[in-house]
Fold:
Amino acid sequence: MNNQVEIRPLKQDEFETVIALGNLVHGDGYLDEQMLSEMQDKAYKSGINANFVAYRGGELVGFRLTYAPGNWSLDRWCSPTLWPVAAEDCCYFKCNTVSEEARGLGIGKALLQSSIEACKAQGALAGVSHLWKQSPDNSAVGYFTNAGGKLIKEHPERWNNNPDHPDYVCVLCGSECHCVACEMILIF
Structure:
């Protein structure tokens, strides 16, 4: 297999493979066509797409979904009074996914960097995310911390009965997810 990784903006004709990878890594019901279409709309600002995919040897091995600044709403899991940047100047890093066989190759970092550059061009000064603390070896929080992210607050049961993902079945907990979300911010 070719080891070269190609990072490029997500296109609609890639939705099916992105959905399949997201559901494989995160659990059934994590993504569907309607959700991904809405996420793609939120990624665009000033003609710039902040969503990216990674291919290795012609196979999709990762994706990063990011909402442009001003294109997302705060919810009860957000703590903007604790952020050092105004909410309207923040993008939202919704999801970073890398296939099991491609982990450890720097793909997550490359996807994040691509989204950061796009969001800067859209006017963002920082990005907020809720990272999965129970990810294998707590890798989600680890890679975001290594990129400069700072922990704001932990939110237990963030994904339990989440209206954004009503059919979600956690790969660790099942349909009653008790995983912790680490709210973090990354200043650009």
Q: What stands out?
A: The domain at 5-187 is CATH 3.40.630.30 (Aminopeptidase).
